[in-house]
Amino acid sequence: MRVLIIHGVVKMPLDDRKKRILFAVVTDYIMTAEPIGSRTIAKKYNMGISSATIRNEMADLEEMGYLEQPHTSAGRIPSDKGYRFYVDTILQNFMKEDLSPPPRVREEVIAEFDEIVKKYAKILADITHHATVAKMPKLNPDKIKRLQLIPVASNKMIMVVITDTGIVKNYLLNLCQSVDRNVFEFLNNLLNDKIAGKSEKAIFNFLEKELKDTLGDMAFMADELIKTILLSLKQLQETDVYTDGTLHILDFPEYKDLNKAKNFLSLLDNKSLLNEVLEPVDDFVDVKIGRENRFEEMRELSVIKTTYKINDRVVGTIGIIGPTRMDYRRLISELTLMTRELSNLLSSIYNDEI
Amino acid sequence: MRVLIIHGVVKMPLDDRKKRILFAVVTDYIMTAEPIGSRTIAKKYNMGISSATIRNEMADLEEMGYLEQPHTSAGRIPSDKGYRFYVDTILQNFMKEDLSPPPRVREEVIAEFDEIVKKYAKILADITHHATVAKMPKLNPDKIKRLQLIPVASNKMIMVVITDTGIVKNYLLNLCQSVDRNVFEFLNNLLNDKIAGKSEKAIFNFLEKELKDTLGDMAFMADELIKTILLSLKQLQETDVYTDGTLHILDFPEYKDLNKAKNFLSLLDNKSLLNEVLEPVDDFVDVKIGRENRFEEMRELSVIKTTYKINDRVVGTIGIIGPTRMDYRRLISELTLMTRELSNLLSSIYNDEI
DNA sequence: TATTAGCACTCTCATTCATTGAGTGCTAAT
DNA sequence: ATTAGCACTCAATGAATGAGAGTGCTAATA
């Protein structure tokens, strides 16, 4: 445990009574969104001490940075540091608890990877009444499992790219000449030989040097093929961010101010920022409170996030985002449960055979 | 022209002076969002008549239903009927104008159909500062162009469904037994023979009666195939609605009230309602003002929409949605221009050869 | 020494009230 | 038919006010 030494006096950061008062402030503020005063604490959370004593303790807590006062004659509210203390305590308790999930009945699914993740993000938003964010996997080129060209007209074909997590992307190719149908098998074999499962470097090498020669009298389609394959590589490495339940934030009293609401909603529209926010963590669950977030725009927001996996391999992140005043205990619990289920489901579908 | 007969007196609905006053009110209100009074009109739009005369005319216009008064001592604002008159006049003028579009440089595109439409909806939202809505095509089963099964593991395969507009859907199939790779050609030929381009009835017939027999010793995969094909048929007939620029509405003074804003945003989240709202029209451009919309929730909203096409075949709808106070003239113009471009682009990519 | 009661003080919030200003309808004059 | 003039209406604004909740400090108490 960290110890503060001030003026030569060894001082434990928080004695038990301070801790209880801090918790009372945090939990009450989470519920009511109103600053809470010494008298209220004394009455509501019967502590067995008078409001005056609590007043003194609160002054201490404020000095230590755990509490803040919106203005002189208001009650106190938790600071980021206060929430942090609260969350750390909660997380410790979570760790101790038995985390084996009540396994739910698995539903029948035929859906794309993204659809499944989106569905879970939606459910999570529904049950938590918060905005949720999900990040879809980013893939390495060597995760390409198969490439398939499908003819759709004499001078058009569709290229389907399949990755090891079953993600499918497709691209329409317009060719300047017609292609005979029976060359497709040759092309498909060629592409799968040279690209599927190969490293980015090997793929580039093949595209630059070998492809044109190998194609022989079909060299006219080389450019279109190269362009499309490069595009697909680029797109596979783009991560997709999905949000749901964004309108829930309008129910929070902190966003009765339209401008604040607008800023938050804009932020939730900013996919590239969310993408960074959702960088995977290897912790059990990661909580960033207020200014702990790297972005200035998020100084009044908290993010609870965790990763979802396929057979213990991290493939994406899912999170909850809201004002710093949030019910961390409940949300952490809901998030971890949903994520565990999602991971189970994905693992059972996209098992390592694919 | 329609004529009102009241108490035996033949009365033209709007003489020229009334028309000019009505237009002044509409255009001013569109800009300022403030009720406008007789004196302001007299000064700002120098009509050559006094405010008192305008006052009398406005009283008439109100009686006729073209104007409304928010409260006794406020100015007037246009009613739905007033906007309707304004819009009809505008549309007449639009019809007369030369509508040949200034053809822009066509950019290089490799993207899916949906992506292109979304991109145009986004641009439209950006330039109009309004929420835009786009409806993607709904497809008939007989528009399936190709079905392709792609093996990805011994007991897994992906089914790719391609329609005549290049829409690609894909489904992962989990089989209970392994399938030898060289049966795929047989399966692909079978499916394309029996399903691609066929009517819904013929497809059902094939799935129910022929499939199992034809498969022979691969009958074990029949159920999975049937399930997947039926799902894809269902999904192809689902229309997709996409929205963009929804946050622009928070800039309108009518949505400074958080509850109104929330209702509007929720409505824009309601895909199935938007889907109905965007039912295609065969008009040049369709404007629904306030209560002209079939939905009670939209009584204070207007929708401007039109269809986009591939070679004169309607494939989807794109629209602008906002408060009844909107700049109809400008928005109609922007919408029609963008839509014409979109149609051109789509026609050039998905020409009838596909 | 730690706690508590008591009190003066601060600050927000809701309410009230008067004022202002834009707009109207009506009437009488042009 | 048009306009000037006037009394009237109503929403919006801002100042004044009081209530209420909370604090910090001091002195009394266990």
Automatic annotation (TrEMBL), chains A, B:
The alphabetical list of record keywords is: Repressor, Stress response, Transcription, Transcription regulation
Q: Which Pfam families match?
A: HrcA
User: One MF term in GO for this entry?
Assistant: DNA binding
SUPFAM superfamilies for this protein: GAF domain-like (SSF55781), Winged helix' DNA-binding domain (SSF46785)
Which InterPro entries does the entry mention?
GAF-like_dom_sf, HrcA, HrcA_C, WH-like_DNA-bd_sf, WH_DNA-bd_sf, WHTH_transcript_rep_HrcA_IDD
Top-level taxon of the source organism: Bacteria
According to its UniProt entry, one GO biological process term is:
negative regulation of DNA-templated transcription
Instruction: Provide the Heat-inducible transcription repressor HrcA C-terminal domain boundaries.
Output: 114-332
Q: Which family does it belong to?
A: Belongs to the HrcA family.
What role is this protein assigned?
Negative regulator of class I heat shock genes (grpE-dnaK-dnaJ and groELS operons). Prevents heat-shock induction of these operons.
What is the protein's name according to its record? Heat-inducible transcription repressor HrcA
